[in-house]
Specification:
single chain, about 180 residues, mainly alpha, 9 helices
């Protein structure tokens, strides 16, 4: 009985935290806590706007098109970097990928992820895709994308398939510290 009560309390705590999510993003953005990135062509993307874009427009367009564009990849990187540790030179590395390599690599990954006969994607498919995005894959013509490591690969996969959870390096380290 105590375990059931604790589980209900955890559900309530999570629901309360989730209800505050958008406001926390807006507070971070307006408080000068590193919540904005300059956008190509002028303007800035705030963390709240990038969040809306990532979980709304990007998911819909990328999933229907079945690949990411280079501009979308750069905004995905901004989405990731605004939530974690800034890495000098990473944006330049990602920007060095050609439009064609971003499209062909992400298209190949989507083909591996989306397999209607096999049902939901499994751990092996996710591992294959992360490796393909990060380093390339020896069993295919995918050469990987410059500046894309495992954490960025996972966030790309979560944009292309909403059943893939986004898990950052920082979230993993933070969860390990709390144990």
């Amino acid at each position: 009985m105590a375990a059931a009560n604790a589980a209900r309390k955890d559900d309530v705590d999570f629901a309360e935290a989730l209800a505050q999510y958008k406001q926390v993003l807006r507070d971070r953005e307006s408080g000068g806590g590193g919540g904005k990135r300059k956008r190509k062509g002028g303007g800035e993307d705030g963390i709240a706007a990038l969040d809306d874009w990532f979980f709304g427009e990007l998911g819909e367009s990328a999933r229907s098109r079945k690949y990411l564009t280079k501009d979308e990849l750069l905004r995905v990187l901004d989405f990731k970097l605004l939530r974690g540790e800034f890495r000098i030179g990473l944006k330049a590395k990602v920007a060095s990928n050609s439009e064609e390599s971003v499209e062909s690599t992400t298209r190949a990954v989507v083909a591996k992820l989306v397999n209607p006969e096999k049902g939901p994607i499994g751990e092996d498919a996710i591992r294959w895709c992360v490796t393909a995005l990060d380093k390339g894959h020896p069993e295919s013509d995918i050469s990987g994308l410059s500046g894309v490591g495992p954490a960025t690969a996972l966030i790309i996969l979560s944009a292309l398939d909403d059943t893939v959870p986004y898990f950052s390096d920082e979230a993993g380290l933070n969860s390990l510290r709390k144990r």
